[in-house]
Amino acid sequence: MHHYRNVQGDSGVAAYETGPDYIRVKFKHGGTYEYDYATTGPFHVERMKALAASGHGLASFISKFVKANYARHET
What is the mean predicted confidence (pLDDT) over 11-39? Predict the structure, then answer.
């Protein structure tokens, strides 16, 4: 996994990993969630990848638009 840069310093995201059709997001508290094309949708997954790479806005995007629409959760 890649360390999430957390540009503003207040994100709950710790790290992320991307693949061709998914992103896995590790939160500081709450485990790791996988979002994929089939469950979350290609638009949201690709937007999350871009936000993860920029280090800004990923947790907010998830809480506003994706919510509990994840494929898998690991504690």
Answer: 97
Q: In which residue are the tokens 């994840």 written? A: 70
CB-count burial class (<10 Å; 0-12, 13-18, 19+) for 37: middle
* CA pair distance 42, 36, nearest whole angstrom: 7
Give me Rg for the CA atoms of the chain. 11
Range of the domain at 25: 2-74
Q: Supply the mean pLDDT for the chain.
A: 96
- Could you say which DSSP state residue 65 is in? I
User: d(Cα 40, Cα 16) in Å, to the nearest integer?
Assistant: 16
For residue 24, is pLDDT > 90?
yes
What confidence category does residue 30 fall into, taking pLDDT thresholds of 50, 70 and 90? confident
H or E element in which residue 18 lies: strand 13-19
Q: How many domains does the chain have?
A: 1
